[in-house]
Amino acid sequence: MVNKRIGLYLQDAHDLRTEGLDIARYAEEKGFEAIWQAESRLVRDAIVPMAAYAAVTERIHIGSGVINNWTRNIGLLAATFLTLDDLAPNRVICGIGAWWDPLAKNVGIERRKPLKAMAETVEVLRRLLAMERVTFHGEFHHVDGIELDVVHGRREPRNVPIMIGATGPMMHELAGEIADGVCMNYCVPPEYNDPMLDAIERGAKRVGRTLESLDRPQLVVCSVDHDRAKAMDVSRKLLTQYLAQQPHIAKASGVSSDVVAEIQSILGWPATAEQVEAAKHLVTDELLNKITASGTPDEARAKVQEYINHGATCPILYTAGGDVNLLIDTFSPLAN
User: Fold this and answer.
1) Range scoring the smallest mean pLDDT among 4-18, 103-117, 245-259, 271-285
2) Omega into 66 within 30° of 0, i.e. cis?
3) pLDDT attached to residue 285
4) Whole-angstrom Cα distance, residue 171 to residue 28?
């Protein structure tokens, strides 16, 4: 069974000017709902690729998956998404998360009180995109009488859904309370979602909303090949790098700290292709089968369905390489 709502997630595995734009067009042609651009490692920012995808498509939604709420001034952040909406009206999604350590710390960001910081960001951003004149004095944002200064163009409020990228229960709960939805994280088993849905529902109920009223797209590492071993190898390399660099994902996926430490002892930062190759044997087939949708088309479809069964409303398939067109064909809502 092919899910009627499906998204695609790109990071940096494809040349942006050639492959990336072709992938965006092909995903739209095949009925994908959205294409999301990553912004996590210090590689590509999300905004430039989003603008590029928007410029070469007509219908598909374009999401940030996800930017962080620490490094862009709130006025600039609102102006950025206003600009994207000018380029692709009613097609832009703001996915925003709390970032992660040690990367944030390594570039001088102190991620204190992440829930409060996120709540303030969402409030001010939403009001600015509603074309309000905003004065706000919080702990993290201080603005006096600012508004989006549109002289030439649309003055009406912009329809830009704000999706909070969440991993732990407290951020899921906050998303249920204040966001338009939650972008649930990858590299977790499908059943990880169950308590997170409870957390979203708790937050939603506080403001008179229901779980069903909130969108819940979810990132899913996905690699498809008719040769199962090739598909598994693509995802294995991705997990090798991400388990070493993003401890919060390793924790959520249940990987032992000993395995993470051993991978980290081999990989530098940034990791080289040779280091990833040397460490990838530490990522077992059992782990790949548990937290990714990797393998033949039928195997990948079955695993993605598990995430849907556990509450994901729109799987966002993270391809780290391999045959992307085959992946798109495999999950195309237009397939018979």
Assistant:
1) 245-259
2) yes
3) 92
4) 31
Two tokens, residue 84: 């994207």
Q: Residue 331, by phi and psi: left (phi above 0), alpha (psi -120 to 50) or beta?
A: alpha
pTM (whole model) above 0.90: yes
Separation in Å, CA 35 to CA 11, 50, 187, 296, 332: 11, 9, 19, 22, 13
The backbone region for 172, taken as left when phi is positive above 0, alpha when psi lies in -120 to 50, beta otherwise, is alpha
The encoded tokens of residue 335 equal: 């397939």
What is the arithmetic mean of pLDDT over 157-166?
A: 98
Q: Which two tokens stand for residue 120?
A: 């303030």
One-letter amino acid identity for 319? T
Backbone torsions φ then ψ of 189, nearest 5 degrees: -70, 155
Half-sphere exposure for 178 (CA within 13 Å, toward CB):
22
Residues 322 and 319: their CA atoms lie apart, in Å, by: 8
For the record, the structure tokens of 211 come out as 């779980």
Q: Over the stretch 6-49, which tens digit does the pLDDT of each residue have?
A: 999 999 989 999 899 999 999 999 999 999 999 988 899 999 99
